[in-house]
Amino acid sequence: MRVFVTGGTGVVGSTVVAELLGNGHTAVVLARSDASAQAVEAAGAEPLRGALGELDVLRTGAAQAEGVIHLAFGNDFSSPGAVAKSVAEETAAITALGEELVGSDRPFVVVSGTPWVPGRASTEADPASTDGPVGGRGRTVTAALGLASRGVRASAVRLPRTVHNEGTGGFAGMLTTIARQSGVSGYPGDGTQRWPAVHARDAAVLFRHALEKAEAGTAWQAVADEGDRVLDIATVIGRRLGLPVKPVPAETYGPLGAIFSADQPASSAHTRQALGWEPKHPSLLEDLENIQP
């Protein structure tokens, strides 16, 4: 299958592209710079020059593909305004891609996040989260899944708070970066809140499964670790970096402070049973041992 991929050079995207190429598919990857285009070519894929905000480029990529995987996001969490801008850009991109696929019965796999359900682990049956600073992403993904009624085999792969590879990536990666900058391996609250996680290579397999066989309108959870305590995550980071481990104010994490402080475990039981997906790579706490001092 010829697959158009946005966000194909990031931590998750690069592994998705490798997974596609390793299983008989070809990939056309959105590349916004010369460096990104070179990385795409080095991986064995075809670059399509353009940025997420260039909707005509996205429509061209989708029109020429047999399937689409959307992974790109601005990831600027420096301020509420920056987050809102990234969400709006992604909404326009997903809308443009989806409209191009209407009536084609082609697969359209969009990235999403595991929902936050108070008191228990979220499941695939729970609706996408629509509250908070990135709530707009949930509304956009819900609309994308609604394209199932318009002849698009749309599905969503929900990623947990940390998608990791060699000790980097996701919320845990942000904790590591802040620890290096501040000299303290910090965590919000009392540290008992739980974050789900998955290795990027395992997540990539699920994206491929969704592309190949997910039914229209379905959501899947790429969760390997149902919930690691943030204190345990910060403890490994502190030990690897030789830094003290201490609680810090939620405001340390800017617009994401409330999300960082929330207990948000997630399950992937249905995904494993229905799609035959089984994580095989190291857990988050194991992978964090790769952090270099």
Describe the protein's architecture and organization.
It is a single chain. With 293 residues, the protein is an alpha/beta fold. It has two domains: 2-162 and 198-225, 3-Layer(aba) Sandwich (Rossmann fold), CATH 3.40.50; 165-196 and 226-273 and 283-290, UDP-galactose 4-epimerase, domain 1 (Alpha-Beta Complex), CATH 3.90.25. The chain has eleven helices and twelve strands. Helix 2 (34-42) links the parallel strand 2 (26-31) and strand 3.
CATH topology of the largest domain: Rossmann fold
CATH class annotation of the largest domain: Alpha Beta
Q: Which spans have pLDDT < 50 for at least 5 consecutive residues?
A: none
Number of domains: 2
* Total E-strand runs: 12
CATH superfamily of the largest domain: NAD(P)-binding Rossmann-like Domain
What's the order of the H and E elements?
EHEHEHEHEHEEHEEHEEHEHHH
Helix residue percentage: 25-40%
What class, by secondary structure content? alpha/beta
Tally of helical segments: 11
Arrangement of strands in the largest sheet:
3-2-1-4-5-6-10
Taking the alpha carbons of the first and last residues, their distance comes to: 42 Å
